[in-house]
Design brief:
CATH superfamily: NADP-dependent oxidoreductase domain
Largest sheet: 8 strands, parallel
Distance between the termini: 60 Å
CATH class: Alpha Beta
Strand content: 5-15%
Number of strands: 10
Order of helices and strands: HEEEHEHEHEHEHEHEHHEHH
Number of helices: 11
Number of domains: 1
CATH topology: TIM Barrel
Bound molecules: NADP nicotinamide-adenine-dinucleotide phosphate
Shape: globular
Radius of gyration: 19 Å
């Protein structure tokens, strides 16, 4: 059977026509689908369940998967990616992202870590490899937000650049097509853009209607980087440790609910359509078929009106869900120190 015929058989009858899912074209000419599937099980969903969702998500039309070594499930997602390709979908049609974890920033560890992800994901190259956080701290999996690494350090640009040089070598070796950042701030990105030989193509950052990060979003875009938005639905399944009493619920916001009602879709779809139309790439996580299918369909909805976009622009607030407390490096600090809110890198 031809690859095209196999791919057609693999395609679920109620799935989305892959051609209908728009893509962004990067400076390299590569094309990234405007929506991807997140794969972080938030400590609550098993790797097997996430891998099963990846396998089936491809059959309903997903081609973009956001992975990371720290999610602990790449070895289970690998067989799913292999099956997807065996079904006739070419590797070139997929977009696979992985991320370098914080305890692997030493240049000698960068290559080993990337090779491990390649091996576990059973692919010859990654489309995108991100430095997951700009802080080189080790933390045990599932640790509490009050946990502090004894050798935690602030962002040190010279150290980050040593890591970045090793990331650049991965591109030169052909292991990785693109490199990017995650959880960066404007002053940190300014330094990286000044010093990088190979520029990041994206910054992966928290983005949802209640946390729009307009200034960083604008900086990322005006610097030619693609914003990839995590927690695009407000991460309702996030771990207990990432919940605070001040948190708000995007999908219950009256503006989102009203738009969703008018369009006859779930509020999740309204959040995702807004994200895509604004220009970020949302990577919603789901292991429920009806949900991940509806999320992909959101990419094919008609445009929101200007009034809808303006109304959603008006509901942003300071609801950062992933605060990053574990990266703090000295006593008496608060999580805001990690995010350089006054425009300077906190030392
Ligand atoms: N770079 C970073 O530092 C970083 C940080 C955090 C996350 N991420 C990435 O971003 C991805 C997404 O973030 P996230 O998982 O925290 O948050 P999210 O995508 O905003 O929310 C996921 C939650 O929403 C539910 N959901 C999904 N679709 C739904 C729908 N249509 N209707 C109702 N509920 C729905 C899911 O439950 P069901 O499974 O039941 O559908 C899951 O509990 C992660 O998986 C990871 O890949 C990256």
């Amino acid at each position: 059977m031809s690859a095209a015929a196999k791919a057609k058989l693999f395609h679920a009858p109620d799935g989305v026509d892959v051609e209908q899912v728009p893509k962004h074209t990067l400076a390299t000419g590569a094309r990234i689908p405007v929506i991807g599937l997140g794969t972080f099980g938030s400590d609550a969903v098993s790797g097997e369940t996430v891998a099963a969702a990846v396998r089936d998500a491809a059959s309903v039309g997903y081609r973009h998967f956001d992975c990371a070594s720290v999610y602990g499930n790449e070895h289970l997602i690998g067989p799913a990616l292999r099956d997807i390709q065996a079904s006739g979908i070419n590797r070139e049609e997929l977009w696979v992202t992985s991320k370098l974890w914080n305890d692997m920033h030493a240049p000698r560890d960068v290559e080993a870590s990337c090779e491990q992800s390649l091996k576990e994901l059973q692919v010859d190259f990654l489309d995108l490899y991100l430095v997951h956080w700009p802080f080189p701290n080790f933390h045990p999996p599932h640790c509490d937000v009050s946990s502090r690494s004894p050798d935690a350090r602030p962002y040190i640009h010279e150290e980050y650049m040593r890591t970045w040089r090793a990331m650049e070598r991965l591109v030169e070796r052909g292991l990785v097509k693109h490199i990017g950042t995650s959880n960066m701030t404007i002053p940190k990105l300014r330094l990286l853009l000044r010093d990088a030989e190979i520029k990041p193509v994206c910054n992966e950052m928290e983005l949802h209607p209640h946390f729009q990060q307009q200034e960083l979003f604008d900086f990322v875009r005006s610097s030619g980087l693609l914003p990839i938005g995590y927690c695009p639905l407000g991460s309702p399944g996030r771990p207990e440790r990432d919940r605070t009493p001040e948190d708000t619920v995007d999908m219950e916001d009256p503006v989102i609910v009203a738009i969703a009602r008018r369009l006859n879709v779930h509020p999740a779809a309204a959040c995702l359509k807004w994200a895509i139309q604004r220009g970020q790439v949302p990577i919603p996580f789901s292991v429920k078929r009806s949900n991940y299918l509806a999320n992909l369909k959101a990419a094919t909805l008609p445009s929101l009106t200007l009034a809808d976009m303006q109304a959603i622009a008006g509901i942003t607030r300071n609801t950062r869900l992933v605060k990053g407390q574990v990266f703090l490096w000295k006593a008496g600090q608060s999580w805001e120190d990690l995010w350089d809110l006054n425009g300077e890198i906190t030392s």
